[in-house]
Amino acid sequence: MRFGSLAGPGLMLLGMLMFALNDAMGKWLVASYGLGQLILIRSLAALLILSPFLWRAGWKPIIEAERPLMQAARVLFSTLEVFCFYYAVMYLPLADVMTYWLAAPIYVAAASPLLLGEKVGWRRWTAIFIGFIGVIITLEPSSAMFTVPAVISIVGTFAFAFMLLSGRRLRATPDKTLVLFQLAGAGLAGLLFAPWDWKPLTSAPEVGLLCLLGAVAMGAHILVNRALKISDAATVAPLQYTLLLWAIVFGWMFFGDVPRLTMVFGAVLIIGSGLFIFFREQQLKKRQPDAPLDLP
């Protein structure tokens, strides 16, 4: 196999590793700093890295962005999602939270007929149903599933799903513009909430770690976007599920979290359902070559 054919999968795998590092760092840092504070500094650091790309692209893609109301809705969903994620990892194992978030493509498939007018056949509906069963198993149906962190996790995954759905309506918007709006929305929300739980930054290494959080997240986004540009989506997109493997490894290494059997079984159902939905969509698009690509 040539190096070129390995580049896309390699970049995607590296991107997932960096996302997992970002999540583990966030879980560690949010225990010592305020949620709004962390998201504010993370967003500013990521915007700093993104700024040269935006400067090269110019202001036109930003000023003339399509569908302003849809852009605003996407920013709202993405901001809610990032706050929910970092709140959830304060109280739940990293692998549990990641399992909930990996269910988002299943929610997207379920909502597509209503919100996007897409046709979903019985095979995908079956996969959607199995995926929902996986989420329920992961939650371990009991009074504990209604704890605040568990509910916040579910809200966050739905926000993430609606962010993905709105992104499908904004395919003409450049990736850099979408990321800019996303970071700006999170940063402004962080600025609003930061004064309520601001913790003193007593040393340069602390500031460096908080900034590194944004740098790692931005680097992960760049790697994933590049992987999707140079390789077929059917080859690289399924590799996103390696994120759960890293979440289990980092959760055990840094926080002593041992995966529950229910989490593992639920994750298997969620990942299997997500992969089936993805490959089924790819199969249908081959029959309709002019149809736009829908990525989970």
Given the helix and strand composition, which structural class is it?
mainly alpha
Distance between the termini: 27 Å
How would you spell out the order of helices and strands? HHHHHHHHHHHHH
Please count the beta strands (DSSP E, at least 2 residues each).
Answer: 0
The residue fraction in helices comes out at over 70%
- Let me know the largest β-sheet: none
Structural shape: globular
Note poorly predicted spans: 289-296
Estimated share of beta-strand residues: under 5%
Mean pLDDT: 86
What is the helix tally? 13
What is the radius of gyration? Answer: 19 Å
Features of this protein?
296 residues; mainly alpha
Molecular structure report:
- The chain is mainly alpha-helical and 296 residues long.
- The chain contains 13 helices and no strands.
- It has helices spanning 3-29, 35-57, 60-63, 68-91, 94-101, 104-115, 122-139, 148-168, 175-193, 204-230, 233-236, 242-255, 261-287.
- Residues 289-296 have low confidence and may be disordered.
Lay out the secondary structure.
Layout: H1 3-29, H2 35-57, H3 60-63, H4 68-91, H5 94-101, H6 104-115, H7 122-139, H8 148-168, H9 175-193, H10 204-230, H11 233-236, H12 242-255, H13 261-287
Helix pairs in contact: 1-10, 1-12, 2-9, 2-10, 4-8, 4-9, 5-12, 5-13, 6-7, 6-8, 7-13
Summary, kept brief:
This protein is mainly alpha-helical and 296 residues long. 77% of the residues lie in helices and 0% in strands.
